[in-house]
Design a protein that fits this description.
- The protein is 18% helix and 29% strand.
- It is of the alpha/beta class.
- The strands form three sheets. Strands 1-2-5-8-11 form a five-stranded parallel sheet, with no helix packed on it. A three-stranded parallel sheet has the order 3-6-9, with no helix packed on it.
- The longest helix has 23 residues.
- The radius of gyration is 21 Å and the shape is globular.
Length: 153
């Protein structure tokens, strides 16, 4: 192997390592997500934290990003909420009951045809432990949305 060829080989390996390191550093922090909270005793002017939860899912939904988890505390919540932001592969938007089965979302006949939650053309959602009742058309309406997981509901 000539000296020039050996040098080019080492330099290409260094470039590959540099590109991989830069790529890892550019992974958005949002993919790690944040936890937010909703409680019937909360306030939509709160911060969405565990000690200052929001009151409604409608307030929380537009604030969620890929990788975030929305924790629903025990109680009843108004439905009719259209989820408009997508999750990402490996970083879905998660809506989860703190105590499975005790966070109840009611369909709202005044809006959205009575659906409790609407997932339309936004991928990567995970719903876990929710109870959905009184949906006029569908409790959880999922249409043209890939990679949506519903479990323990």
């Amino acid at each position: 192997m000539t000296v020039r060829r050996l040098f080019d080989h080492r330099r290409s390996r260094l470039n590959l390592r540099t590109h991989m390191l830069v790529g890892l550093l550019l992974i958005p922090l949002s993919c790690f997500g944040s936890d937010f909270h909703v409680s019937p005793d909360g306030s939509d002017s709160g911060k969405g934290s565990s000690d200052q939860p929001w009151r409604t899912i409608a307030c929380a939904a537009p604030k969620l990003s890929a990788g975030d988890t929305l924790w629903l505390h025990d109680g009843e919540y108004a439905g009719g909420v259209k989820l408009k932001k997508p999750g990402l592969i490996g970083s879905p938007i998660t809506i989860r009951a703190v105590n499975p089965g005790k966070a109840i979302i009611r369909g709202d006949s005044a809006t959205s045809g009575g659906d409790a939650l609407i997932v339309f053309e936004v991928p990567y959602y995970l719903f876990d432990g929710l109870t959905v009742v009184e949906g006029q058309r569908a409790g959880l309406w999922i249409d043209k949305a890939n990679h949506v997981t519903v479990r323990n509901c």
